[in-house]
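Write out the 3D structure for:
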Amino acid sequence: MSVVLSTASLSAADRRERWHHAVSHTFIPLDVQLLEDDPSPGTIVSNQLGSLRISRVQAGPQRVTRSSRLIRDGKEHLILTLQQRGGAIKEQDGRQARIGPGDFSLSDSSRPFRKTVQSDFAFTSFHFPRTDLRVRDEDLRAVTATPFSGQEGSAALVATYLERLAREAPSLDAFVGRQFAATALDLLALLINERRGHFASQAPETAAATLVRVKDHILRNLSDPGLSPPGIAAAHFMSVRYLHKLFELEGSTVGEWIRTQRLERCRRDLLRPPALGYGVAALARRWGFVSPSHFSRAFRAAYGVTPREWQRNGLSGDGRNAVGDGRNAVEDGRNGGEREGTPPQTGSLHRSSPTSPTMGASCPTPRPVRPPSPHSRP
């Protein structure tokens, strides 16, 4: 459910304080300076997808500053801002950049930054813990306060995905939302590594776009027990070696990624009422597991309980805590410590509530990047 914060019903005299409160509680502690004598109304509409908070913001001219004094709060978050209307000046790490409509940029809360907008504006922000974006610190520092054009190349792919994700966020359930959010951070990490020259682009698509396309193919064929690297590579006109190189960017393997996706779907389906009519082995086969014993071992290793324990306790309604020590640890890790469906804590202003997308493959939180050799080719 969306959380809406608005100063529209307040007097101009009250808007200044209330807007500062809204901005600091939606994002991170910030100093907010409104640049109008009579502040315009401001609105923030937020949705939470796991640890990713998506907020659509509309307001009048202002300057927000993250000072050294405020950094003492210890929060290490990143804020990606996708500009829709109006222009902004971003400053961080010794750079100053103009961000226009259609562009996006990154700010790192662990270091001072400033953003100034001189006219009415609208943007969508994507706010998440620094640890969720698996890129090296020196690479992140090199791209803060840098415009990424949403009109061309890999950045256009990322911008399109983010815009669609923001539009669909209110209708996504917790599981699907987390998966799409993880995909967004995968794309962003790949874009940063491409910008930093850690791997060469391939024509006509970049490696980032190719990896998303490969993952989408895998997800559409998860039920096929014969799904394998040679078949996947052949379907995309690339070598098996290059396919493995793409997954090495995330510190993973093709087989690990397939197994994780199959297990997630089995875990989800075991708690759905139709699962009552299926045996565990039949459900495992439905998602491409050939051996019931192998499935049970893999499931227990991933979630700390057997499939039957997970199903029995979950369907009875009293076991999500009993079984849940294993499950909750898994879920908390994926949600960045937040429970499913927990709305963002965004203060006490006026609140109101305002088709699943087909945006490509979902994927788990990426692991540390290891760039392949620049001489690798499909």
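Confidence is low (pLDDT under 50) at residues 201-205, 318-378.
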